[in-house]
Amino acid sequence: MQYISSYKWLVYLGLQEFKVDGKTFQVEIIDSVQDYLEYMKEIFDFGAIRTLLHGDGGTDGLPILIDAMSGVTGPYVKRIICDELGANESSAVNCTPLSDFGGGHPDPNLTYAADLVTEMKKGSHGFGAAFDGDGDRNMLLGKNAFFVTPSDSLAIIAANLDCIPYFQKTGVKGYARSMPTAAAVDRVAELTGKEIFEVPTGWKFFGNLMDSGRLSLCGEESFGTGSDHIREKDGLWAVLAWLSILANKRKSVEDLLKEHWGKFGRNFFTRYDYENCESEPAEKIMSNFDSMVADKAFIGKSFTQKGKNFVVGKADNFEYTDPIDGSVTKKQGIRIIFTDGSRIIFRLSGTGSSGATIRMYIDSFEADPSKHLLDAQEMLKPLIDVALEISLLQQLTGRDKPTVIT
């Protein structure tokens, strides 16, 4: 067995040569941040975003706060948001990548990005964002920590792609979302006449659609958003897309959401993560569900919580047939769809020695504008209680509350 006893730092850009076993070995170092910046300048109108951030004489600039959570996005945020777009240095925090992420957990949600949420609640910033460790996922907030769900973020971008020069040139093909993601983008697709795809969780399923020219924009409820500019999710791209839309619409994040809900209706959505559950009861929950959805008598069954009645219209373990290559992917999550369009979804991951994570997704559409500003947890409470009743989750796991609520 051979071991590396030493290594050399390559500290400058360009082509460098080394002798390895008597042979010439070449290494070219590129500035990936600069390459990414140049590509983003082809996609977005940086001049419009600068005006948004600084004001144009008649309007004040938009104060923003971007938290890289000590992940790899930090240098990109500094170069693009601060150096190129001219935001104050204080607008970008935790931008030095650290191997231990500064002792934090680089997951951009309301629980693990709590520092950003706290700062946004003070009302000094009109737009906030956080990224995960490798920068492909993003969480967005408006003034006073107004939370934008990933499902709403995807729908807002879909409804406003005409604000982005890249799509003005390429046109808009279709949209896609992962199965657990709320169906908000479906309503945009319906009104705009575009294709919509519901795929299993996993970015590879979006890739086939992009490669075939069927997909322009896609996303998942776990804070991933992407387009066909690359074959991956891209957190900073999503932030620049939002800033482009805000620059064009001249509305606050909250007002933009209100306007969108007024036109398309609102999908109330929440996700409960029960982390580090014992594997046996977690697997029992999923096994019970498999038996339940296989029973035809389950269709039409009625559940009532807090005076609201839900009737099962469809139930299955999600199966996907790829429209491009015909491949079939089975057992991607339990779906219970009620006759009013509300959905309950359960998925299980990580059943190894470290414990299992049970994910419960709740999605309910509301057309009544008078209810659009109500608290999501309150609006969804009857459906959440139905999900807990059907799953017996609390009884089987002993958990009285989730680890993380999104």
List keywords for this structure.
406 residues, alpha+beta, five-stranded mixed sheet, 20 strands, globular
Q: What does it look like?
A:
The chain is α+β, with helices and mostly antiparallel strands. It is 33% helix and 26% strand. The chain is built from 13 helices and 20 strands. Strands 13-14-17-18-19-12-20 form a seven-stranded antiparallel β-sheet. Strand 1 and strand 2 form a beta hairpin. Helix 2 crosses helix 9. The longest helix is centred in the last third of the chain and has 16 residues. The model has no long low-confidence stretch (mean pLDDT 93).
Please describe the biggest sheet, giving its number of strands, its sense, and whether it closes into a barrel: 7 strands, antiparallel
- Proportion of residues in extended strands: 25-35%
Give the integer mean of the pLDDT values: 93
Number of helices: 13
What is the first-to-last residue Cα distance? 47 Å
Low-confidence segments: none
Structural class based on helices, strands and sheet pairing: alpha+beta
Give the % helix: 25-40%
Strand order of the largest sheet: 13-14-17-18-19-12-20
Report the C-alpha radius of gyration, rounded.
23 Å
Give the total of beta strands.
Answer: 20
Question: How is this structure best summarized?
Answer:
By secondary structure, the chain is an alpha+beta fold. The protein has helices at residues 32-43, 46-54, 74-84, 114-120, 150-159, 165-170, 184-192, 204-211, 235-249, 253-264, 279-294, 376-391, 393-397, and strands spanning 14-20, 23-29, 64-67, 92-93, 127-131, 138-142, 146-148, 174-178, 195-199, 217-220, 224-227, 266-277, 302-305, 308-317, 320-321, 328-329, 334-338, 343-349, 356-366, 404-405.
